[in-house]
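MODEL INPUT / OUTPUT PAIR
PAIR INDEX: 1
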Amino acid sequence: MSKILNRPELDWDKQGQPFSTTFQDRYFSAVSGIEESRQVFLHHNRLAERWANLNSDDGGHFTLIETGFGTGLNCLCAADLWLKTAPSNWQLHLISVEKAPLNASELQRALALWPELSTLSEQLQQQYPPLLTGQHQIDLVPDRIRLSLLFGDATEMLEQLRASDHKAWRRTGNAKADAWFLDGFAPAKNPDMWQPELFQILADLSTIGTSFATFTASGAVRRGLQQAGFEVEKVAGFAGKREMLRGVMQSEPEVSPPTDNARNRNGIAPWSLNPNPPAQQKTVLVIGAGIAGCTTANALAKRGWQVTLIERHPMPAAEASGNPQAVIYPKLSKQDSDLSRYGLHSLLYAQRFYRPFWQRDDYGQQCGVLMLPSSAKQRSDFTAIGERFADSPQLVQWVDGDKASTLAGIDLSADGALHCPSMGWIRPANICAELIDHPNIRHQCAEVDHLQNRNDEWHLLDKNGAELAQAATLVLAASHQVGKFEQTNHLPLKSIRGQISTVTTSSASESLQSVICGDGYLTPAHQGHHSLGASYNLNDHCDQLRHSDHLANFAALKKTDPMLADALNADLDSIDGRVGFRCTTPDYLPIVGSAPDPEAMRERFAPLSKNARAEIPLPGIYYPNLYLNCGHGSRGFSYAPLAAELLAAQINGEMPPVERKLRDALNPARFLIRGIKRGKR
């Protein structure tokens, strides 16, 4: 994930209002920025009227996309109006793109001008992400308003909201915006944004009835919107400005049907596109009550779905998610890859996700994480990571040995460490139980043996063939057990045995204040015990504690930092622990998305075995309304919250919270496609 290179150059006038010296333009009207937002964007999109008339009998979601987040004023005005007018069982999804975002202090200074928005402003500032390119998810008002901040070029970022970049399928499978705020700097001063490609994306992400409003009356903008299918009207602008534009999409633009000659610009078959529509009935079965299943159930329940959560154990978090303490920490990289990008953005979302839990007793602690290098090469890598993210010290920073010892609360021998101040540890069982304590979630203790799809519904059967449950939509989130079903036994899931050790605190170790990670990890004390570990044993199915693994955990801790092991002063003959089995994949990325039909996919995309870039202008073939969420490995508690949001968005027909490139990297069909290209089954 690259750092933002474009930073705004600002001047502040005598009234404390920001002015862009880069574009020689104001962020909002000098007369009244808040009234400008309300008139130009809220009034001319008719939002008060539309939101007041939403059907309160059935909850739903309204999607509003903005070009030009700026100070966040438009989004906060929209959020304020939503809370005053929309039914409480509806959710607002704000999506705003910004190429040159303000930093936290600039944002605070600008929003201080609007005290009437202070409550929403404080929520935004508390969760405002580091200035890193990509999509950042914020729960602005829990269960009511979500904000997706897209940091990067408007065309590039909004294009990633499409389900496919194949020209024949660019409108298929897309979630649609209900309204647009077109609020970049003026076209004459910021022509790079107002390009034909932008209007094409507006068309592809809109449908009949989608509205727009923009402060500009530029002829080029008017023509671009008309070509995109919008009926465009000129009206009086704000505060004496002569004209502005507003309108509604009246007819969807035509897209040429796919043919054998419909070439994608990259020559890539659109195998990741699932043309199946989401189920209309909002009932869903989720198998597995570990962190993947519990976050998925919670994300869907908050969207109004009736969830039946099926678990073979009486309580949630009974297997790999059941350790007494789980660490939320990053696997940051000095390189840019799918794995590092997903790791970074899932981590940024996880720290916001767990923040409300960390503010309560017995759910964990946001104590920070120190990552100690185990070799000279790793020390070099860590310092490079610190330099790469130098503009994001709230995420990670390199600290010297003295500072590391101070942060740890005990002496360390390391001469430096990466410090992640916003991370920490959680109580998995407590958090899983809290997530599924929701009126829309029903629990069922059962062992599912096989799945059948009949009459557009999924039926779950036990080993005797008796039916356990049925619903139109099914999510498999049962770790490596996902691979036992006929529909999913092609997945290359690996079970990794992990044993942790728990040890009583000593007079020296009880002062540990931060999680320590290295070859091993050590948590601060909770209820008189530390957790350390964990072993990593492939193809090892022993579920009993082994003394040899306790010794290995302590050896790893000693290698991490000898002074940690000395501080524990543990009796190695009397320690306890726990065994769990992680589920991982060959590329170490989780499996999140629609379940492919393996034989149908192999048949459709067979030409890829002879030419990996063969022109096959056809979408993938996926089971109807069958979804997967598994393969999180040892980072389940960091990965699962964002994965659950991604899956819930797909199931509920919403704009995705993850860029398309990463969605493809997580797609369950990726292993089939790779196998076809390599000539393997």
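PAIR INDEX: 2
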Amino acid sequence: MRSGLRTVPDAQRVVVVGAGLAGLSCALHLVGAGRDVTVLERESSVGGRVGAYRGPGYEIDNGATVLTMPELIADALAAVGADFSSVEPPLRTTLLSPAYHARFADGTTLDVFSDPDAMAAEVTRMCGRDEARRYLRLRRWLAEVFDAEFDRFMDASFDSPLDLVSSRGAVADLTRLVRLGAFGRLGGQVGRRIRDPRLRRVFTFQALYAGVAPSRALAVYAAIAHMDTSLGVYAVEGGMRRVAQVMAEAFVAAGGTLRTDTEVVSVDRAGRRVTAAVDSGGARHRCDALVLTPDLPVVDALLGPRRRRVVASPSAVVLHGSVPTATTRTWAAQRHHVIDFGEHWEETFAEITAPRGRGRLMSDPSLLITRPALSDSGQLFDREGAEHEPLSVLAPCPNLDSAPLDWDALSGPYARELVTVLEHRGYSGISDEFRVDHVDTPATWRSRGMSAGSPFAGAHLFRQTGPFRRRNVDPRHPGVVLAGSGTVPGVGVPTVLLSGRLAAERLGVERRRHARRGTGPGLH
């Protein structure tokens, strides 16, 4: 915590609203510092965006499937003296090699390795030695951007944009980012370093996580590409949902109180100071401070509306279901994560990021296909004498501000269209054998209180980034702290874990140590 930043004094009794990763991270850091902490969760289970759906005979992650920087999970657990091996069963992670398998419309493929030698060899195979040398230069640049911004801009709270130049160190890091071209455009900076258009896609598609097309995204978001392609992508035994379950178990074991099926509908105040969270049953949960982790429309419904409109990120349609392994064994792509790129890349981004009322569904979809059983055989299951595996397919789409489509009518036909696209791209048998048990659309996300029906919160435009993003404290609401993807540092599993710790620091919790990339306890 930087000295001089605003904190909430005398917050011994804290209520945290929401048991997603941000709320659980904050709660662990608070209870580890001796605070009396109660977590209230609207749903019947924990996890938020890393929850699960149940299908006949299986479970499947219903949110984030890509895990980077798992040491941030270890850091939250360590706040209460726990680690990956102190729970039963232990939390086990596996470094995926490759992290992704990329398929392109011209029939070529690329495995994306975090190991530099393996990745250079793969780039050489697809693009030649000169491009491999350029890739290694790009990799160094990605790392430099990440190193320059992590401490000062990602792992940081802000009271004002002036915090960017509040110290000699801050000025030095800002100057370094300027020198690296990090305030230019991501697509342009990557394009200056590598030439092959297929390879450029691999190192810029992460801009979608930030809610912006690569051609418009700030190059500071090269940090996401660095996490994705250099620091490594991990699989979790039992699914991503297991992360939230373990964090919740450690929180309760350390003395915290967790109440599910408890929706907060209002707050009590004494003057301007919040004194209690009131649930839908009328119970009052007294507190000295309140941490709000839901999406901003829910936050604003509790605190009072704000005039400033947030520009939401694009949304997604996600098909969740299962398929017989006899079918999937015939597919050319046999990886945990597959990115199946359409041919018309720039047009796709233009369609899904168009201004209000002008968005369109992707005319040439680029899709993320996730098959968790390929790295965790425990997720295989038997149905009617045949082995099956869980399968999810994510298709980016415009949010409801960009394209106010009737998803109640559209979800079924669009799901069938996406499956047909995959059949034509070589996923033989998927049209007949993929049993889709759940379809999430922008309407799903809107029903859960997410702005414009987007699970990716506010887009990381310049005016919604860093010190310009919704701050985690607001002087108009003493005793209230925000965490989650709508506030700093932003969207993504690592960032919401950081947001939870930053919220705890706003409540006066001293940072025990500095969590950075590496191999935290229990990572294997």
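PAIR 2 NOTE: The first strand starts at residue 13 and ends at 17.
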